[in-house]
Amino acid sequence: MSVTLFPAGANLVEEVARRIEAAGDPADALVIFPGKRPGHFLRQRLAHKKDSSLVPPRILSMDELVDGIFEERDARQGRVRPKAEPIDAVAILYDIQVASEDPVGGAAFMSLDSFFPLGLKIHGDLEELLIEKVKPADVAGVQPMVEEEVPARARQRLRTLAHFYEEFYRAVESKDLSTRSSRYVEVSGALEPGEIPPLAARGLIIFAGFFTLTRAEREIFRATAKWPSVQQIFHDGPGMRKRLEGFAASALSSAPPATAVPRPQTQFSSSPDTHGQVFALNALLEGADSNTLIVLPSPETLFPLLRHCLSRFEPESYNISLPYPLQRTPLYGFFNNLMEVVGSMDGPRVYIPAYVSFVLHPYVKNTRLGASAEATRVLFHALEEHLEKTRTRRFMTMEEIEADTSLFEDAADRIAEDGKGPTAAALRAHLVDIHTRTIGSFRSFSSVRDFAERCIALIAWVQEQSTARDHPYFTPFSESFVQSLDTIARSLMAEKTFTDTQSYFTLLRNYLQARHLSFPGTPLHGMQVLGGLETRSLQFQRVFILDANEGVFPEARQENTLLPFPVRQALGLSTYRDQEDIAAYHFELLAAGAREMHLFSVDGADKERSRFVERLLWERQKEQGLRDERGLIRSISYNVNLTNAPPAPIPKTPEVAAWLATIDHSATSLDAYLQCPLKFYYRTVLRLSPREDLSGEIEAVEIGTFVHAVLFRYFEGRTGRALTFSDVDPAAMTSVVDELFVKHFGSAETGANRLLRNQVNRHLRDFLSGYLRPLVGSYRVEIKSLEHDVKTKWKGFSLRGRLDVVEERDGESFLIDYKKSADKSSYRMRLDRLSLEERESWYRAIPTLQLPFYIILHAAETGTAPADVHAMFLLLGRTLMDSGIELPLFEEQASVHESWPVLERVIRDLLQEIVSPDVPFSPPPDLRAVCPRCDFTAICGTGWLKKS
Hints:
By secondary structure, the protein is of the alpha/beta class. The protein is 47% helix and 12% strand.
């Protein structure tokens, strides 16, 4: 047995790895950390040091260790005692409450809906009492000890809590259930080496990184400390030696102090808001290396960080591991809006403001009617206008809304174009269906299970029928919601009923308060973005801490307990002071292992700097002999650059803007606008034709057109079925080339024409043998359409385009566009250079919007989700005709859920700019990057720019 206290600046993961390597085969070792995160770093460290594959040690969190031992014991005894969820515990506690002669709160908490929040508090207190091995008699017995400090009502709660304490765990055992604390207590009571098979008999067991321990955990430590194979490693820091007194001090040895590590270079920054500190962090981050840590004490900062800072890095260059509250997700907002409209109903009548807020929620108004959600958006915005005309009526029945024929006729007229679009009757049926599936389905419930199952069904409907799943985080959010709802549906609460519908909503709100989406943070790579607790036992050279404000860092935890402070002290339970000590300990360890630390705080009327920041500032003041801190804090402010560059913008009249809203927009026109709005103006508004250029560009365009025609003719008779090797027919390709060449270019018997024909023929034969044959051998390839014209409505705009090839590969849709070029760099997206907030970066990051534009057309026509559509250019100008001619829109299809909304946003915003009368036709910000290749330099006066 070995108990070691290591200095604060030492790397705990490195020390654990060193001991494992010194002991022999890592696979024989077992490591127990307080949480799961350090285990990922330990595996990485062992693998990097060996520089080859290895079987890692078994690494467990303390909870996983206890669960494993407990379940192994049950298995030997032929028992199964699953762990009760908090909602199961509340159901048991409620039964005890109802049967009690002296229920807590008297008659005030006799209904299930009123008892539920209280039940969660009671369960938390009971679990804490049990894991600290406080006896039920001690709960009631502590009353005389604190008689003067505890009010009379609180003393009554103690007696009631003691009754719950006795009855609850008796009921848990009778139902063949267990809880986290009951497992700890049972395991800690009689722990033997053989209960951690097979590792205890042959390998090293290390407990590392623990600071605060419950009584049950201390008993586990005492028991395992007697085993020869066990080593316990603690990290020195504020309060650690005191916490080791009484159970490890006698066996404690201190590791030799490491080389003196200076305090980290610390920089303090203050910003007016959250975004300011994110922008400041973005300016300081030079790269996303593994020595860098970003600490997010507040999950509210996660998405500003993703949007304004991490978006410039590859997703594979950083990890995120922190709990994100489900209450902050759009899906919770959707349910909250639904609960508000149902809860505010007066009988069958809906409260109009709540109803409008609900139907205009993105998940509702983007419900698809057919292949597109556009009709639904038009319908609900028309509905909003119709309801505004009757604003004196605060309540209406859904039947009254559905009976408004003028509403549906108006919406149908707005959608219709060239006599196409949904009819008024179809729009009415669509609205009735939405009402039925949402508000109508949530009017009443037969049980908690019925309520949970309807919520799950509604999430499935939103996922299938709306555009919600196009958002990259909708799937993980919805999966976490469904898991929580499934837990409710399978709980002991499932068959219970509430007194009214609103109580079911209250149940969901209360239950979701403690539910989080856990970003996994694996596989481990690059820069780490961690929550406060996830930094435990880890060390980084550069540490950036955002939201270093009091109440956030350290967190101001609300005492969610029925036990007053003096009672908690008397019973030996943790208090808010202990939580503050824990936060200070981990902060000191993080600082001791860092060479550079940046602390960002928000400066506002209701914001105070963290006590950790204030202490460090005071130490710095004393070191430098400063009377105040002003010279130590970097203040962040915003600068706006409104400089305009020549040539002058051309104003957009309302008439032109209105006309632009009615025309069909193509990928070509959108690319022109992306590169230069002035170019778009000359081509689309003035309808000026590009100048003729005899440098060879026209010939190249003609060659491209010819190749398109040849490929169309060749595959025209091979659509609608799976391609086979017999379709790879070089002779047939030669025949098509010869036939069409005469039509396009004349005789090919002599001169340059013959050379051109032979070159095209040879290249397209290589295309068949080098590209198509391997493709047919690897996939089931079916060409669905060729040169297919598509016109659709999208987000209020009319779009049209021609899709070169639509094919399926093993059932997945592929949009293919032929390009005569060989240069991939001319078409490859560089979304890492794109900032949605920086309009000037768009054309640099996006050489063409052609493929995203075609995906929108295809998705609207077929009803396929854009994220499920593959799109690529085939670069027919490349010398080697193999799979390398493919240039997919997304190099990694896994990135589509993150990248697609960005591209869709760019297209939408460009279209909105085009039709906005407030946005003039402006020149590009970088004239040298665009103008040399433009056809209208003579008009703009930029002909002096040389072509590169």
